[in-house]
Specification:
Length: 425
Amino acid sequence: MNIAVIGSGGREHAVIKAIKKNPRVQTVYALPGNGGIARDAVCVNVSATDLDAVVAFVTENNIDYAVVTPDDPLVLGLVDRLESVGVPCFGPRKNAAIIEGSKVFSKDLMKKYGIPTAKYEVFTDAEAALSYLETAPYPAVVKADGLALGKGVIIAETKDEARAAVLSMMRDKKFGKSGERVVIEEFLTGPEVSVLSFTDSHTLVPMVSSMDHKRALDGDKGLNTGGMGTVAPNPYYTPEIAERCRKEIFLPTVAAMNAEGRPFKGCLYFGLMITPDGPKVIEYNCRFGDPETQVVLPLLESDLLEIMLAVTGERLRDVEVQFSSDSACCLIAASDGYPGSYEKGKRLTIPENLLDRVYIAGAKAENGELLTNGGRVLGVTEVRPTLREAVAAVYEDMKHIDFENKYCRADIGAKALKATEGTHG
Ligand code: AMP
Ligand code: GLY
């Protein structure tokens, strides 16, 4: 089989490495991929959001199956376009990807079907939003309706901060059309858990749980990033919580999407908060998380491509989805300054023996060398019987990976270790 993976980050690199384990795979193309992914796939210089160009490449190159992983092409309807030219895909159609593409849609869905989430109000008018903020409880959470490169959520401690967020989204159009509507919601507290799942709209199979570290600095300080590291499993996701999530959140979400005539097929990602009142949905993503994927897929013992094909063929219940009981940690190396401004073009050295565990997110190949080319440059993942060993191993690996302005958080896994060792001695 010839497979096209659409996207260019560490997540795509992890998906490609996992897919390639299937002996039926002949060639994997990455559109556009990156200089590091080029070791594992044929990179084609086509942007993931240039739908016409993706469709043209896929039809002209005997592609049997496409895997669409980033949010934008999914929300733009790339899967529908590819299916219309006869290429089966892993990923939801446009009418289901809206579960991530519009926060107003997802909040209204949860309200209508009784799925636990933060209380909220929707505003289409800045004046109405500002007047609501006069008497709102603080902190308040202000969210742009549409995709905003992960920057559309502001936790406002005070009325002034909330007003500034509303004005930047609705009046100054900081996120363009994405901010035409805003959701203002109740601030929830509790540990966060990410659960990715496979679903073919009939069956839902949760993957091993994980924990992201979104802030740039140690101790969960600093600006929000795309994610500075992950661990799996997440110790806060106990069997009791998992069972509640399944009954109160996962299955009702699949049923709600079917009832709305928007069957979801692909990877449905639940961003959860374990509040004192039980698990609640913070957000849905219509795709694999990044860098959650870089810890979840290394723990998958079953064949990823066979699972994906079963999702597409709506026969997920017939395939095995088995995860290892080991733990995984992924540590991200970013360019110093990220998510603000940073320098690129630094020479990257990665020892040969680590290459199978390294996922390249932002690098380009030039004259046989790899140069940094993004904020998040790469991640390294280790799988070990215990989380403590996995964390120690990635920090050891990272000592041998080098580029001039390398920045890593020093405490990836610390919170999870505290929780694990606190509960189990
Ligand atoms: P999102 O992009 O929706 O995942 O939001 C980014 C981050 O903001 C989440 O990972 C949470 O840490 C935080 N967040 C979002 N909504 C809430 C909420 N209602 N209460 C507390 N924190 C929130
Ligand atoms: N790591 C969170 C996300 O992929 O949105």
